[in-house]
Amino acid sequence: MNQTLANNHTCTSTSFSNAANQSITVNGVRFAYRDIGPAIGVPLVLFNHWGAVLDNFDPAIIDGLARTRRVITTDYRGIGGSGGTAPLTVGEMADDAIQLIRALGLETVDVLGFSLGGFVAQDIALKAPDRVRRLILTGTGPAGGSGIDKVGSVTWPLILKGLLTLRDPKVYLFFTSSANGRRSAAQYLRRLKTRKNNRDKGPTPSAFLRQLKAITAWGQQPPQDLGRLRIPTLIVNGDSDIMVPSVNSMALAKRIPNAQLVIYEDAGHGGIFQHCVDFVAKAQAFLDA
């Protein structure tokens, strides 16, 4: 296991905060996306967490990755700027993603999934292995993984705590309660507010609950045959993930052939945001290897 202690250099962001909102219609459904970085090499497509819209992607990570490659971020069906109704299964989200990648004219892509996006990324890689060159799975776990179907019972009390303490629930859900964790949470939430104009609209309560059903179903479904994945895979998490328990990252690393594992100490579900400079460097090196 590759245990990593990273320096918390300041993460900065510029271009993602000004990226144009774009859309493409796939099978009659409008999908919102943003597209930045040089149009060279294999594009990197990102899939985000439960309830996330385009403005929930960390600008520091997007900008860092987009220095050397084309980076495409998107809203799931029924979320943010995308039309249609939010799917009730991860499998449908993956099917949408594969069709979106095709519609964008991309032959081969690298895929990065965070949390729910990591579930979707695994399913994309299993369903369309010829289309995915490299896979980055962060803060995520396998189908049927430990505690994934309990995410609602972990999340609701901390959403309530956020309301009562006038804090964004991500402070409690994504970060540890140490001084380091709290400082990183504040920096991350500041970065999410960088964009001032043409922000994406938040998820409706209905879409939020439908996605929770999809996550719960993923946690209860039979394990997938991850041994079939012959795609180079990088797995990253914090050592204290309460949303998708960190043991799931270790399980993924055992089950996906030759996967690389990075576990950040004193970091939670949002370990990649806490260590964004180090994560971007590791992701760049992995994608360029």
Quick take:
It contains ten helices and nine strands. It is an alpha/beta fold. A nine-stranded mixed β-sheet has the order 1-9-8-7-6-4-5-3-2, with helices on both faces.
What do you see in this structure?
- Helix 1 (59-66) runs parallel beside helix 10 (276-288) and helix 2 crosses helix 3 (116-127).
- Residues 1-9 have low confidence and may be disordered.
- The protein has helices at 59-66, 90-103, 116-127, 151-165, 170-174, 179-192, 205-220, 247-255, 271-274, 276-288; strands at residues 2-4, 22-26, 29-36, 44-47, 71-74, 109-114, 132-138, 233-238, 260-264.
- It starts with a strand and ends with a helix.
- It is built from ten helices and nine strands.
- Helix content is 38%, strand content 17%.
- Strand 8 (233-238), helix 8 (247-255) and strand 9 (260-264) form a beta-alpha-beta unit.
- With 289 residues, the protein is α/β, with parallel strands linked by helices.
- The longest helix has 16 residues, at 205-220.
- It has a nine-stranded mixed β-sheet, with helices on both faces.
- The chain has one domain: Rossmann fold, CATH 3.40.50.1820.
